[in-house]
Structures are given as C-alpha cells and as structure tokens.
Amino acid sequence: MGVQVEEQIIEIINRETQAWDNQDIEKLMSLFHPDMVWPWPRTADSHDPMNWVLELGRFDYERWKKGWLDLFASHRLIHNKRKIQKIVVSREGDGAFAVVDVDTLWKRLDDGKDFHWKGRACKIYTKVNGVWKMIGHTGLLNY
Length: 143
What we know:
Blueprint: H1 2-22, H2 25-29, E1 32-37, E2 39-40, E3 53-54, H3 61-74, E4 75-89, E5 95-108, E6 114-128, E7 131-137
Parallel strand pairs: 1-7
Antiparallel strand pairs: 2-3, 4-5, 5-6, 6-7
C-alpha cells in the first residue's frame, strides 16, 4: 500500500505543477479539498508561525479562482521548478504530506517586476471517497 500511495501523491504534486505550468485554472482548482487552508509566512525566513498570515482564507472556489486568474492575467511565468524531498503516508493510507522545494518565478506584465515563490512547502493531503485532495499547505520557507 505504501508505494502505491506514494505514487498517487507524486501524481497529485505533478498535476499541481502542470496546472501552474499551463495556467490551467480548472486543473488547479480540482486539487483543493473544500476545507483547504493555506497559511503563509510573511517572509521566507519567518519560521515562527506567530508571524504567518491567511491571505485567502478557507477554500472558496470562486474567490480562489478569481485570485489565480488575476495572477495569470497580470504575470508571465518564467519558470516553475519543483522537487519532491520527502513523502510520508499515514499507516492507514488515507493521509499524507509531502515536502516540496519550490522555485517559481513570475514577471509582472505592467512593470517587469519579479514575483518569486522560492522555498520549501509542506503539502498535506487527505483521501476522501477514493480521491486525494490537498487540505493544507504551508507557505514557502527557506531551509
């Protein structure tokens, strides 16, 4: 069961990467569990969660979709590199987390300013009715 579940987690991580690469909003939105929450550190060095913020709140399909579409319309993707460092699966095979190093660079269209996502994330997954969904994700931190 462990290897099979790890392959499923690799698949959902790759699907997320492809969604960003292709700016495929429907693929991206399909990844999230309805109870998804995504806290972000104020900087990549803000390891203490006392300083973190919730930019998007709990998953809301229309609000999150609009936010990502606004990003796609106002920025050009330069590169999107992701490397899986670790996958841990629960004994029961119904929960998992992945440690992923992210290096995603966007360039703002109006002034050419870089918008860089760089650091390590912990992506948390839950299996509901046989389907893996992301239920939590920490913002990117330097390690």
